[in-house]
Amino acid sequence: SVDTLEQSLEPDIIENDQQESEPNQPDEKRNIIFIGDSYQVGLQADTNFLNELKNEHEEEFGQIYDSSKSVHGFSREGLQFITLIQNIEDSIEDKNAITDIVVTGGYNDWANIDGVYTEMEKFVQYSHAMYPNAKLWLAPVGWTKTTSTRKELVAQSIGAWKTSGNSLGFHVMSTIQELFHNPYLLGKDTVHPNNDGQKELARCLYES
Question: What is the pLDDT of residues 59-114, one digit of tens each?
């Protein structure tokens, strides 16, 4: 079964025969990099899920690094997640202390679905090389409530995220995929989470 972020926020207890396959965590608190798009920025809302997580679970976190920008994705040409994680490299002194890298999104890769696997693989390779103790988490949450060709492409993009993520070693939060199929959690633009949507996303990220 897919590991949960909630479980990862507690100290790892590893049996002797599993020690070589699990990263060594430097301390109990999680030092997390969050990579994301406009969902993480908080468009169409007065808050965002990252602020909600900090407010509710501050005592469980160590350092939190936020690198997010609208319209970005794994495979969006010129607007790629690997650039966002590279941008914060110099601000993280102890890279061995990073315990988790959480990537949210999925909407924007509709423009280059065929490139998702290749670009995600580059992201994974960079992350493992730079942050050897970090677990990689993938939250494919992008959606739109409009009935259009775009909606079909976004669904394909989310599918590519899940398939590629599972193949490349991400802990895929598969239960989060249909969160925004509830239209009441999206803003007036039919794409971005409203305040309730951001709060629900924070809860699901923590629990799923």
Answer: 899 999 999 999 999 999 999 999 999 999 999 999 999 999 999 999 999 999 99
Q: How far is CA 71 from each of CA 101, 174, 183, 187, 196, rounded to the nearest angstrom?
A: 19, 22, 21, 17, 22
Report the alpha-carbon distance of residue 83 to residue 67 in Å, rounded. Answer: 9
Decide: helix, strand or coil at residue 186: strand
Which structure tokens are listed for 180? 């925004």
Q: Tell the residue number behind the tokens 């406009």, with chain if given.
A: 38
Cβ-contact 25, 99 below 8 angstroms: yes
Provide the CA 129 distance to its chain's centre, in angstroms.
19
Q: How far apart are CA 51 and CA 25, in angstroms?
A: 24
64 close to 92: Cβ distance less than 8 angstroms: no
CA nearest neighbour of 47 among 193, 205, 180: 193
Identify the CA nearest to 174 among candidates 204, 132, 143, 202.
Answer: 204
Q: Report H helices in 103-187.
A: 116-130, 149-168
Pair 172, 162: CB distance under 8 Å: yes
Look up residue 140 and give its DSSP letter: E
Q: Decide: helix, strand or coil at residue 53.
A: helix
pTM of the model: 0.84
Mind listing the pLDDT tens digit for each residue in 123-165?
999 999 999 999 999 999 999 988 788 999 999 999 999 999 9
Q: Which residue, among 99, 79, 77, 75, has the nearest Cα to 87 in the 3D structure?
A: 79
Around Cβ 109, how many Cβ atoms within 10 Å? Answer: 31
